[in-house]
């Protein structure tokens, strides 16, 4: 499916840029098809084919996209390993990938039993992937098989070693249809430009590539996402949609260059990949003056829910919307039974986009899915009387204070509206009397005075029950992030329990 989409996109869009490298060189649609053919021929000569796994430990670069397409052309699956993981973490993920061949840069090498190829970064399409490309060659024809694995997408690993969710052609085709309606863009129309916000190994980057190819999108890559760079690219290329995780958009709004950047091309903002506070959503609407939508899913589910750009503004403020067409949303208790209407439980999603399973891990697959094939997201939430999903945090983020469940997302959404708070995360800390209490970890707005704990509690007291109010406060310059740019709550919890990691919270 991916292979055929690459070839057809090359026929339609030809010399249009498909990918722009972080250092500025451009890979056209025609070059993507031709170079991936040559790499595929080389992979076939090495013995890779159906059932094989190609692991990529690379930063954002056109080489990743070419290799991904090449693997699909010989029937192999691509496993992307986030290069921002520590060497120890990368090795652990590589063991799970159990790849037949790994492609890395010299400083990303993973010593082990797997055969490796180390690359020198290319300066243009003519020099790209020369060690594993057979110039002028093409791979042998490959029969269609919608159930053939195409991508292994590793989870963020916030609860342990990342697991690899397997997506076959069938799932990628469904995601493409959901995103685009399978309607090809007019080759004569101006290209749509977008700035890659998520890691190249992320669910969005790997499963939405066929949709981007179908629409003829030009993707601008960043070596590492920075707000200033994203703003500059958005203005220079007339990007119409700012898409990213809430943290990234918050950093763009806070950047000193925001006020001087010409963002008149922007027509919409789409947030996903993590919870967004009401305060952030209102600020986005106020400062950009464009419609806003939120998206919700998890790696294993492929697609999930969202609000539409023309929905009532309140929908995005209080929820993550309603299920996309073909997605079944249920909220369940720990035993898998459905909870009462309006009650909090674990969010479960079922659709044709759900992963085939975890890579070579049937036990973990069984634990992550229900008997009827729904994915257990690990998120807590409720469906309100308008059919909208309201999140309450992760199952492992919830803490119990004196017998009462406290959901951090609910508390954060209130504290984030304090005028001095730019970002906030609430985590549970052990307490001898209450079992656990909440600590608010706060990043201040520029120039704001540091609020006291009593001030924050008083600010939130009218909207939160007493047991939900934070009982500790720590002010930090930035919230720690995972390699997927999500708030690293595990690290925050460890810092609260270990006084050697920083000042004790008040």
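Q: What amino acid sequence fits the structure above?
A:
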């Amino acid at each position: 499916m991916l292979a055929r989409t690459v070839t057809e996109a090359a026929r339609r869009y030809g010399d249009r840029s498909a990918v722009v490298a972080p250092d500025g060189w451009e890979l056209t649609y025609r070059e993507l098809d031709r170079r991936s053919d040559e790499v595929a021929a080389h992979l076939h000569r090495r013995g890779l084919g159906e059932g094989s796994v190609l692991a990529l430990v690379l930063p954002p670069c056109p080489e990743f996209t070419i290799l991904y397409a090449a693997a699909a052309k010989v029937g192999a699956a691509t496993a992307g390993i986030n290069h921002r993981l520590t060497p120890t973490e990368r090795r652990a993920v590589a063991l799970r990938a159990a790849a037949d061949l790994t492609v890395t840069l010299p400083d990303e090498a993973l010593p082990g039993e797997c055969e490796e190829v180390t690359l020198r970064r290319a300066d243009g399409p003519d020099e790209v992937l020369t060690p594993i490309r057979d110039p002028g060659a093409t791979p042998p024809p490959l029969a269609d098989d919608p159930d053939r694995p195409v991508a292994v997408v590793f989870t963020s690993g916030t609860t342990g070693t990342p697991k690899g969710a397997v997506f076959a052609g069938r799932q990628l085709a469904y995601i493409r249809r959901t995103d685009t309606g399978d309607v090809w863009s007019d080759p004569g129309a101006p290209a749509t430009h977008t700035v890659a916000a998520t890691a190249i190994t992320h669910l969005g980057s790997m499963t939405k590539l066929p949709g981007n190819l179908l629409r003829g999108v030009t993707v601008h890559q960043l070596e590492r996402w920075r707000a200033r760079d994203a703003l500059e690219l958005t203005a220079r290329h007339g990007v119409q949609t700012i898409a990213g995780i809430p943290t990234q958009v918050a950093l763009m709004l806070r950047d000193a260059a925001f006020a001087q950047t010409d963002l008149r091309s922007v027509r919409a903002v789409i947030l996903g990949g993590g919870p967004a506070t009401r305060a952030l959503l209102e600020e986005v609407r106020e400062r950009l003056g464009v419609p806003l939508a939120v998206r919700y899913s998890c790696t294993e589910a492929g697609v999930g829910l969202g609000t539409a750009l023309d929905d009532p503004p309140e929908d995005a403020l209080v929820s993550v919307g309603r299920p996309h067409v073909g997605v079944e949303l249920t909220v369940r208790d720990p035993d898998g039974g459905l909870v009462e209407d309006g009650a909090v439980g674990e969010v479960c999603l079922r659709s044709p986009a759900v992963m085939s399973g975890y890579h070579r891990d049937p036990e973990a697959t069984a634990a992550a899915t229900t008997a009827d094939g729904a994915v257990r997201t690990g998120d807590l939430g409720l469906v309100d009387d308008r059919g909208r999903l309201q999140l309450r945090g992760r199952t492992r983020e919830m803490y119990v204070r004196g017998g009462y469940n406290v959901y951090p997302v609910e508390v954060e959404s209130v504290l984030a509206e304090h005028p001095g708070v730019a970002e906030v995360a609430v985590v549970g800390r052990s307490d001898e009397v209450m079992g656990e209490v909440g600590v608010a970890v706060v990043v201040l707005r520029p120039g704001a005075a540091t609020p006291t704990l009593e001030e924050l509690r008083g600010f939130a007291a009218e909207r939160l029950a007493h047991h939900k109010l934070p009982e500790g406060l720590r002010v930090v310059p930035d919230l720690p992030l995972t390699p997927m740019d999500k708030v690293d709550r595990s690290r925050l919890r460890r810092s609260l329990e270990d006084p050697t990691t920083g000042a004790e919270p008040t």
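Q: And what stands out in the fold?
A: The chain has a mean pLDDT of 91.
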